[in-house]
Fold:
Amino acid sequence: AENANNHLNTFRLGGSDYYQRTYGGALGYFSTSGSSDALLYAPGMVTGFANSSPNSSGWIGEIAYVPWQNVKFTAQYVAYQKFNGASKDYDGNGRNASYNNTLYLLGWFAF
Structure:
């Protein structure tokens, strides 16, 4: 690393609610921030850091259906506002934070 001391902070806030323990939803915010370090957070395609900053933030939204006690189906969407230190061109190769947005589909069975 370039710096003798670095720091990395993570903040998460979320909430969820269910109607009759069957239909539910959740919303959450996440943020990671820390020291800039040109060696630790080096430029590079896709996973690189154009401005040497680890700062990332975004929202997570989820809807869920629980038809039976041990079964759950969920759709979750992660929307990035900032990724690896920037909203636009975070890696120096034209990639925007929103290119990392992700949809998860989950089937959960417990027995």
User: Anything to note?
Assistant: The chain has no helices and five strands. The chain has a mean pLDDT of 93. Strands lie at 8-19, 23-34, 56-68, 71-82, 102-109.
